[in-house]
Each structure stands twice: as structure tokens, then as C-alpha cells.
Amino acid sequence: MIRLDKITKIYDAKVENKKALDEVSLTIDNGEFVAIMGPSGSGKSTLLNIIGCMDSVTDGSYYVDDIEVSRLNKLDIHRFRKKNIGFVFQHFALMDYYTAYENIELPLLANNIRRIINEQLKKLNIVEEKDKLPKKMSGGQQQRVAIARALVTNADIILADEPTGALDQSTGQEVINILREINNQGKTVVLVTHDINIASSTNRIINICDGKIISDEMV
User: From the DSSP assignment, how many helices (H) and strands (E) are in the chain?
Assistant: First the structure.
């Protein structure tokens, strides 16, 4: 379970009333499929980054199950993120001079687990792309590689920041279908999107504006 208790995030301490997040409290149960929506600058990406341990809180507490993540030191946060969280980004965040296989391999280099990589290549239908560089792949193929990279560590929480933003509508829907399948396998999936049609494919939509949750509804 993900639980945020009165989370506040301030980037500029000189501007006290400029809060990226303003006492946000939120619970996401294990296995949920959640969309976070809001206008640019609303705080939705900041919220996702805090859940993903890519950013720290200014005030408040963040828990995953019984672990108070917001109190961990930098090394322990790195270990926690590596074990528990997978990321999918809008612009794929692939290494340009690594093949698809090598990009997926990055989180596993310490373990050298090739079987898991091959399983993800097959599941996401990108076996033929495994030796290609990102610039030789379509946007949809690159996003599949990014999703495979997020899954190879078997993390229980998958976070996706505008995962369809750089894709056409048809390819974007394919990516959402993949995320739905991942959710059906028991993973918690949280995505940020501007697209209400994409958000409606999830089970719950959280709207955020000016750093505050303004609505939280089941779909």
C-alpha cells in the first residue's frame, strides 16, 4: 500500500506560498490502476516523482506498506527504488547507443539475469528489435523497451509519466493495453496523463490543481 500523509513540497524556500504540493494525503492500495490528471504546473509530476523516490518531501510522511520511505537515507532510498519501483517515461529515456536488449539489461547488470530479459522481449513482442538502437525503432517499439526495462526487476509498483504523450493514438492505446495487462498480473500502476481517454482506461482518476487533490473518483 502507498500512503502519503500531508505531503508538502516547496522548491523555492523564498516563496513560501509557492507549493508544488500542499498537504496532499492519499492512499493507493496494492494492485490498483490509477491515473493522475491536472493542468501543467499542477503538481502531478511532482507527486509521481515523490511516489517514485525521485524527489524528496519538504514536509509530511510517505509510506509504502510499513516502510516510512520519507525517513530513509539516500542509500536506502536508492536500494528501495531499485527493488520496488519501475519507471516508464514520456520520451522513453533510453540510452541512444545501447540496443533494445542492452537498455532492458541496465537494471540487471549486477545480477546478469538474461533469462528475465528474454522473457520480457517475448511478452512485449520486441524480440526482433533486441539488437536495434533506439533511433532505428518506432516510438511504440521504444516505449515497449522502456516498459520491459521497468518490469525486469519484478518491481511491484510501476510509475508512468505521460507514457503515451509522444505516441499516436493507436500506438498509445497499445501501450495502455500493456499497462492494463501488467496491472492484471497484480502490479500497482500509477500514471500521469493529460488525456481523459487514457485516464478513463484506468480504475481511478485523481485530479490535482495548484498542488492539491480536487477530486478522487473510481472509474
Answer: 7, 10
CA distance 153 to 116: 9
Q: What is the pTM of this model?
A: 0.82
In order along its 219 residues, the chain shows pLDDT tens digits of: 999 999 999 987 655 567 899 999 999 999 999 999 999 889 999 999 999 998 999 999 999 998 999 999 989 998 898 889 888 876 655 667 678 777 677 766 555 567 778 888 888 888 999 899 988 988 888 888 888 878 877 889 999 988 888 788 888 888 888 899 989 999 999 999 988 988 999 999 999 999 999 999 998
Please give the C-alpha separations between residue 96 and each of 89, 114, 136, 154, in angstroms, as whole numbers: 15, 21, 10, 24
